[in-house]
Amino acid sequence: MTAMDQKITDTPQPGRIIDAHLHIYNDAYPLIENQGFLPPPFSVEDYKHRTRDLPIVGGVVVSGSSQGFDQKYLKPALEKLGDQFVGITNLPSTVSDEKILSLRDSGVRGVRVNLKRGVVSGLDNLVDFGMRIWDLAGWHLEIYVDSRELDEIIPKLIKLPKVSVDHLGMARSGLSQIRKLAEAGVHIKASGFGRTEVNIVEAVKILYETNPDCLMFGTDLPSNRAERPFNRTDISIVAGALNSEDAIDKVFARNAAEFYKIKL
Question: Strand 187-190's sheet: what is its strand order?
Fold first, then answer.
């Protein structure tokens, strides 16, 4: 047994996981090249195979940049994954009420604002759009952004009743901004460790101490464009940064279950 294997064995592991951030790329549906990248297929079956040894009891399928504003892939993906999985999708602010309500009935829980990959540009109507989808469908916004660019966004985000930020905000130097959001009740995804500069242990400890209800774990599978893909040591890194079995269960399951209205 290697030293790393021993460390994983010695670290308390979550008994259940709601995967708060995963992607499905079904090549039966059109994909859009984004910033020179087109993702390879990653099916529901691929996801189940990659997570077969993990205690995953539910999750959140998040639309990627290459899926644009199209949701055709999402409904069949959620049907295959089952009732414990919900969706987050990309939508323009001009989307109709009827479309929002139809997606809600198909298991969609919110809208992703992808500033990092340029799917959405401009923030002028961010609050208005966030309030509209909240009032209409109980939806929230999920922000994919480099935390070094959050100064402009923080005053807007804290006006919203419910919002989350992906991948610990990406940048190590932006941790202070992410902490401000956690203090204000914004949820933060502990995910995408292969694409972030953040010191994971430091960030998890600080954010849990700041707001124990804010952190939600996600695999970010299949981890496209990341320097390294997800592996189960990421679970041990997060679990090891928390100080109790209760904290581990909150970050790996209960916080996401409450946020996304998934039954445990």
Answer: 17-22, 56-62, 85-90, 108-114, 140-144, 163-165, 187-190, 215-217
Q: What is the pTM of this model?
A: 0.91
Q: Which two tokens mark 214?
A: 């804010």
Q: What are residue 111's DSSP bridge partners?
A: 89, 141
Q: Parallel, antiparallel, or unpaired: how do β-strands 140-144 and 56-62 relate?
A: unpaired
**Backbone phi, then psi, for 149, in 5-degree steps?**
-105, 15
Handedness of CA 17, 19, 7, 237 (dihedral sign): negative
Q: Which amino acid is at 218?
A: G
| Contact between residue 106 and residue 75 where contact means Cβ atoms under 8 Å apart | yes
Residue pointed to by tokens 């939600």: 216
- Note the Cα 115 to chain centre separation in Å: 14
Contact 56, 106 (CB under 8 A): no
Query: pLDDT tens string for the chain (264 positions)?
Result: 444 444 445 678 999 999 999 999 998 888 887 677 788 999 999 999 999 999 999 999 999 888 888 899 999 999 999 999 999 999 988 999 999 999 999 999 999 987 754 445 455 688 889 999 999 999 999 988 776 667 777 888 888 999 999 888 756 556 888 899 999 999 999 998 877 778 889 999 999 999 999 999 999 999 877 778 898 999 999 999 997 999 999 999 999 999 999 999
